[in-house]
């Protein structure tokens, strides 16, 4: 290794010298035979940091970069990832509670083995604070390299492998503690073999040309990975055919269905049902995983995660893993009513880095899958029924501030919905100037619509790179200098809205329909979450919304306001004595004279009582059906539900 380290030191000196003038550098990594081409721009440090960390801990640099690429797309992120990881290396630490995908409630998280928490291990190995590893990019890379090297030593009798091929098992162990970890290692080594090229959000380019590294998988069987038994209700990988169009690459891997403690009410991660016979399937929900494809699959295989999804889709090639049958209810939305009536599709990605993850293969796969499911379950191909997680409310007001906002501002809804409907992706909608009382559909040109977006999840707010977005910013007055509107759940202090990616209170999403409240020149105001919200909507090529049609609701005469709910649950009188009446809050109120677009259809008025895993309570897994009629409305960035008895339908 002395000779290799000497080469690395010389190359690092060359990078430092040439980086100042923006030169390209080609690195030869001796032990693997890989060539790593790095484009060094002024101030470009990430590749230098990868090289330095690889040198310091004797980790093959192509393995380190490929691992980071598949965990984070070489971008910093906070603990919002599905496995709670931080930074480029997705370093994990223990958190005591998490939000259940079932109903949005907080649940306790049991601790895993100490080896799983790579952030804590990195902090100990580097003798630094865990908090610094969360936010310091260079330190995070060093921490990942230190843990990866430590894994390799533990698996190799205290010695560092001399060939990149022999790092396969260390990569698998670094990635977690379930059988999905070997899939991570497979993906990492596939990236090394095929080569990869990435441009980070700050414009830095990292490239690994194709290299014929054959992973040594011989020692992976010795890993103490969690082997999850096939679910008796969800069959097993080979015993159940995935529900996919024949043209897609699909497989079935069951999400966990298991009891977690002595209490049969403590279980995960889904519920057996008989949809659509017992509950109508009305929605398809699009999510992102906030982490890698494999980490999402691993997470859903852990019954203590209290979350699942029908499908998971890989970014690179659109491969599909189904994990819960469509007849059953997955736990994904944090709103039990919408889980009851929806199919959930998770896409590998991180919302703040959307463009890095949301590939053409992913869009095409989603479109084919959604069209197949919509045809099978008679779901309309519109944005009132095909929704993002960020369009869904919650049952309780206290949970709404923490409700998810994926797939976020960088998912191209217009393009995606045209693919779903089989339309020409370049098709233009004819524009005509709206007037008060009209219904408009939000539809900015994704490629040219680039409002400023900031991200604050890593503790420091940064301006994200200018790129296409699928929302229109909303202001308090028809003026570019007017403050952005705010939502009381996002800004409890009544402060103005912001450009933050997670501030959904001032963003009208593509495809949603709203009623025009006012027009002043090139400015249009809509009713949005109980207030009048303005956006710039010039005529001609620059318009961001167009006139369309929709049924509309408004409060009945004589009512000063009407409540908006996060579910269409039955009233108390519908529940038998054996089933607790389910609370669901009045989330918003819309005032007399305000109008909102609606689907115009009455919604299922029901509640699925899933009390225990073993049906041990009276009427367990019964469906309570009521007779209260509700309409779904486009309230703000999220949908809502109003009682038909409170409103007039026009």
Helices and strands in order:
Layout: H1 2-19, E1 24-28, E2 35-39, H2 46-57, H3 61-72, E3 85-86, E4 91-92, E5 97-99, E6 106-108, H4 118-126, H5 130-135, H6 137-155, H7 168-174, H8 181-194, E7 196-199, E8 205-208, E9 250-252, E10 258-259, E11 267-268, E12 270-271, E13 283-288, H9 293-300, E14 311-313, E15 320-322, E16 329-330, H10 336-340, E17 342-347, H11 354-357, H12 360-377, E18 386-388, H13 413-421, E19 439-442, E20 454-455, E21 462-463, E22 471-473, E23 507-509, E24 513-520, E25 523-528, E26 531-536, E27 545-548, E28 551-555, E29 561-565, E30 586-591, E31 596-598, E32 606-608, E33 623-625, E34 630-634, E35 639-643, E36 647-649
Parallel strand pairs: 9-15, 13-17, 13-18, 14-17
Antiparallel strand pairs: 1-2, 2-8, 3-4, 5-6, 7-8, 10-11, 12-16, 14-15, 19-24, 19-27, 20-21, 22-23, 24-25, 25-26, 28-31, 28-36, 29-30, 32-33, 34-35
What do these coordinates show?
This protein has 650 residues and is an alpha+beta fold. It has a six-stranded mixed β-sheet, with helices on both faces. A five-stranded antiparallel β-sheet has the order 26-25-24-19-27, with no helix packed on it. The longest helix has 19 residues, at 137-155. A hairpin with a 5-residue loop joins strand 7 (196-199) and strand 8. Helix 12 packs across helix 13 (413-421). The protein is globular. The chain has 13 helices and 36 strands. The protein has three domains: 2-222, Lysozyme; 228-409, Lysozyme-like; 555-649, no CATH class. Mean pLDDT is 89; it is low at 1-43.
